[in-house]
Design goal:
Layout lengths: L1 H29 L6 H45 L3 H6 L2 H8 L1 H19 L2 H4 L1 H4 L1 E2 L5 E2 L5 H5 L4
Antiparallel strand pairs: 1-2
Helix pairs in contact: 1-2, 1-5, 2-5, 4-5
Length: about 160
């Protein structure tokens, strides 16, 4: 999980470099400099690193989710094998197969996407109490900077 968090943070950092490179290219063009090599080489290297990091991150996500699914299937199979004969007869085969396949696949999908998406989100989304005010009823009020939000009356 630590490797996945590190790769997500690294890719987020590299994504922040790309607009800076584009800004530099636009500024150089406005100043009359037409040196494309100064922009294309760093942009290409950054894009290549982003591709490599995304590929490694995808592999780590798949590995982690498959490992969790395997462990969960083993635990479910073990618990099914410990059921008494009467309990096993009361369960339909479709219900047992659903637990072993689709339920585990849903958990596997969640695991593969949850870790990196939680890291990618802004801290205000994960920990809203630090970024906004909390009312006495537990509602979080965030600061808003858009004109549409400023026009709305406060409650």
């Amino acid at each position: 999980i630590g490797l996945l968090v590190f790769l997500t943070l690294l890719s987020n950092g590299l994504i922040l470099v790309l607009p800076r490179l584009i800004q530099t290219g636009i500024d150089n063009f406005n100043q009359g400099s037409h040196d494309y090599q100064a922009i294309l080489l760093p942009f290409g290297v950054c894009s290549l690193f982003l591709f490599l990091i995304a590929s490694i991150q995808n592999g780590v996500q798949v590995f982690t989710s498959e490992k969790v699914a395997r462990d969960l299937r083993y635990k479910l199979a073990d618990s099914i094998s410990r059921l008494s004969y009467l309990d096993l007869q009361s369960q339909t085969p479709s219900k047992l197969l659903t637990h072993l396949t689709s339920d585990v696949d849903a958990i596997k999908l969640f695991i593969s996407q949850a870790i990196s998406s939680m890291v990618r989100r802004r801290p205000e989304v994960m920990w809203p109490i630090k970024s906004g005010k909390v009312s006495e009823h537990g509602t979080v009020f965030h600061r808003c900077s858009t004109a549409k939000c400023r026009q709305q009356p406060r409650r």
